[in-house]
């Protein structure tokens, strides 16, 4: 360290990095700021340099061969003479929570992630360099003051000569100084104040007259015990010491240097570090706290969860649980009322969850509208369910947001511990899986995780991944279920049903269609099925004399029907395949029909104008309006198999009779699904239901088998049929 002629003395900082180019970069940046950068290429070299320099700061790389940054920091903190030196980690490691926790435990005051902003680095370094200069100034002032006090005690002339210098030092010191009279063997509370400087007056918030000749116990009645022990050791040994502590009476964090300037004396130099501490707490909050709600964030949640898992391994009867909850129907709030209203909702939700939780529980926000709780020290598993139900009740209460009364429910997944988990992320994942199962029950429900749920979730993930490749690999197939005339038993059409052929087996639609709908793949899959059905039907027409009124029915999914260019897509398919539109019947569900009736009427008219027939599938399971039903340009109502399969139930019999009568009154024909017995067939025929399909006639067959049926049942064999 040296002093320049026209400026402050150059301050040494230590840069530790195994890459020479990084050391050159740091040296070049900081030497322009009047800072002397001492370089070390390893942790061992850095430790050797500590005894030769008084460093203001250490810039320490984490990933180094031999002794890494964490171990180097721990050794620095273990040294009596070096533990006060602040350390900033400069690393390329992702700022993942476990690296952050280890870094702070090793003694880091901050992190910089490579590549870092040069101005941010210089500003951070400048703060610690200034603090070091202040500490040196305080130390020198204290030493000078001690020498002055010694001179005063030995010579009245020295006292007179040094009065001005002594007073100047006192008045110019940035840090507080107090000189105490302390008898041998006495404790700090009994020490009496001999002198204070103006900075100490400001710290104590009292004038000099109210401090001098008072005992420490009078000024600080709640003095911390460890501070008494610290000063007693300095007074006994005569060696100076340094401590940083919170002084409750002053409501300040103080960095106190204590030394013995002479017999019966104790000098304390105090630096107010409250602002720095608050800044560090702000960094901690930004690292581990959700800025919107003030709850713990995901990083802190995972850390606390890891601690709970560790406790459960050490303690035989330790019970804990994780609750993962998601707001049902939250997304429309942002789109309708705006993000600000959504933020208000989340803050209210956070407060309600805290109100439902117990005092020792951790409440965290994990995502946009996802929250989690760690319930610790449970008496039994039922206590976790009680908390989960309280949360659901709190969520169900209406909330007032910007003049709107909003109502929400929350789906809650629960994982009960202890359980055999290696990582907290796995436990949180399973709680999320249980939450998704709770949501499928209709929202506002609680579901406890079971291992079978993970198997189903992994299966769903596997299906979703393979579905993306199935179209490219041409793995989809259409099977065709015959539709027959219930009076003549003649073949009058087919319903095209999709299958997925993969790994040597046919996957039924119920095992993959829901996943395709969730991912949006249902649209291209549906387009393929429509085009394939049209191509096959056109081929049949060229080979066979198809019966009069023959149609092939194709189901449209809700997403496919919602495509704005559906009519244009169909026109293109019909043109490419050369299919007569009269041979194609498109089927939509009753629920789809009623979601946006006006738009549906317009789209159906476009299809009918092309010559395509339209049927309503699963009729009777939804909530159709008769006024709209009369306006829909449709040809067929299809009775759902749930009514046909149990005609012994009187209510089902009445429903089927009503549907058939309603269809005929509106000019529609009727197809009954799921006919499996002759009794069902005869009953439906007796109601004048025109058509039927089901296992009584045939299951769905491949395209080649359907072609064989046409060959057998064509007009040339009508008499045999």
Automatic annotation (TrEMBL):
Modified residues (4-aspartylphosphate): 61
Domain GGDEF: 318-451
Residue ranges constituting the Response regulatory domain according to the UniProt record: 12-129
InterPro entries, per the entry: Biofilm_reg_signaling, CheY-like_superfamily, EAL_dom, EAL_sf, GGDEF_dom, Nucleotide_cyclase, PAS, PAS-like_dom_sf
UniProt-listed GO biological process terms: phosphorelay signal transduction system
Gene3D superfamilies the UniProt entry points to: 3.30.70.270, 3.40.50.2300, EAL domain, PAS domain
Keywords: Phosphoprotein
UniProt keyword annotation of Phosphoprotein present: yes
Coiled coil segments of this chain: none
Keyword Lipid metabolism part of the UniProt annotation: no
Pfam families: EAL, GGDEF, PAS_8, Response_reg
Record-annotated EAL domain positions: 460-714
UniProt-listed PANTHER family: BIOFILM ARCHITECTURE MAINTENANCE PROTEIN MBAA, DIGUANYLATE CYCLASE DGCP
Name used for this protein in its record: Diguanylate cyclase (GGDEF) domain-containing protein
């Amino acid at each position: 360290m040296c002093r320049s002629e026209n400026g402050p003395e150059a301050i040494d900082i230590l840069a530790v990095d195994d890459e020479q180019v990084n050391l050159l970069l740091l040296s070049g940046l900081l030497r322009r700021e009047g800072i002397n950068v001492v370089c070390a290429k390893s942790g061992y070299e850095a430790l050797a340099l500590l005894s030769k320099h008084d460093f203001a700061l250490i810039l320490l790389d984490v990933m180094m061969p031999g002794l890494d940054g964490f171990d180097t920091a721990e050794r620095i903190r273990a040294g009596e003479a070096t533990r006060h030196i602040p350390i900033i980690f400069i690393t390329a490691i992702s700022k993942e929570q476990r690296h952050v926790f280890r870094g702070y435990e090793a003694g880091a005051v901050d992190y910089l992630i490579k590549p870092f902003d040069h101005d941010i680095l210089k500003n951070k370094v400048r703060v610690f360099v200034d603090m070091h200069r202040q500490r040196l100034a305080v130390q020198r002032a204290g030493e000078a003051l001690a020498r002055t006090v010694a001179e005063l005690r030995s010579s009245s002339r020295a006292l007179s000569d040094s009065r001005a210098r002594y007073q100047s030092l006192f008045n110019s010191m940035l840090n507080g100084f107090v000189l105490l009279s302390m008898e041998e063997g006495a404790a700090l509370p009994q020490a009496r104040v001999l002198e204070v400087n103006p900075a100490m007056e400001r710290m104590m918030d009292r004038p000099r007259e109210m401090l001098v000749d008072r005992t420490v116990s009078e000024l600080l009645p709640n003095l911390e015990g460890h501070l008494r022990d610290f000063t007693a050791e300095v007074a006994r040994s005569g060696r100076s010491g340094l401590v940083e502590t919170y002084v409750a009476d002053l409501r300040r964090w103080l960095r106190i240097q204590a030394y013995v300037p002479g017999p019966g004396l104790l000098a304390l130099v105090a630096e107010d570090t409250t602002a720095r501490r608050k800044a560090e707490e702000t960094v901690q909050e930004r690292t581990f706290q959700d800025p919107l709600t003030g709850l713990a964030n995901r990083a802190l949640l995972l850390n606390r969860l890891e601690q709970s898992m560790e406790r459960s391994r050490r303690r035989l009867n330790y019970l804990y649980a994780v609750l993962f909850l998601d707001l049902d129907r939250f997304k429309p709030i942002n789109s309708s009322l705006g993000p600000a209203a959504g933020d208000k909702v989340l803050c209210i939700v956070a407060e309600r969850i805290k109100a439902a939780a117990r005092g020792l529980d951790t409440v965290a926000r994990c995502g946009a509208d996802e929250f989690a709780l760690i319930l610790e020290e449970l008496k039994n598993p039922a206590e976790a369910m009680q908390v989960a139900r309280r949360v659901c009740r709190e969520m169900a209460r209406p909330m007032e947001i910007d003049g709107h009364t909003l109502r929400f429910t929350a789906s809650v997944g629960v994982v009960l511990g202890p359980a055999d988990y290696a990582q907290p992320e796995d436990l949180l994942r399973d709680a999320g899986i249980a939450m998704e199962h709770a949501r499928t029950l209709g929202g506002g429900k609680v579901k406890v995780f079971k291992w079978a749920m993970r198997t189903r979730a992994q299966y769903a993930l596997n299906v979703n991944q393979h579905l993306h490749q199935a179209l490219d690999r041409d793995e989809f197939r259409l099977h065709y279920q015959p539709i027959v005339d219930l009076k003549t038993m003649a073949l009058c059409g087919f319903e095209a049903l999709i299958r997925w052929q993969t790994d040597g087996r046919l996957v039924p639609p119920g095992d993959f269609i829901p996943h395709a709908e969730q991912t949006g793949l249902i649209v291209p899959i549906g387009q393929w099925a429509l085009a394939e059905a049209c191509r096959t039907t056109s081929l049949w027409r060229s080979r066979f004399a198809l019966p009069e009124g023959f149609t092939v029915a194709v189901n449209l999914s809700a997403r496919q029907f919602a495509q704005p260019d559906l009519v244009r897509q169909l026109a293109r398919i019909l043109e490419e395949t050369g299919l007569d539109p009269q041979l194609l019947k498109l089927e939509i569900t009753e629920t789809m029909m009623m979601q946006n009736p006006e738009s549906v009427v317009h789209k159906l008219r476009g299809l009918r104008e092309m010559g395509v027939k339209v049927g309503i599938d699963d009729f009777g399971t939804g909530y159709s309006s008769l006024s709209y039903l009369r306006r829909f340009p449709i040809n067929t109502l299809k009775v759902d198999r749930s009514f046909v399969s149990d005609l012994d139930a009187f209510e089902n019999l009445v429903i089927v009779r009503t549907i058939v009568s309603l269809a005929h009154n509106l000019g529609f024909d009727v197809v009954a699904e799921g006919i499996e017995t002759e009794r069902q067939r005869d009953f439906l025929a007796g109601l004048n239901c025109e058509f039927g399909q089901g296992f009584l006639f045939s299951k769905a067959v491949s395209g080649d088998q359907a072609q064989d049926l046409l060959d057998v049942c064509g007009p040339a064999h009508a008499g045999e049929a």
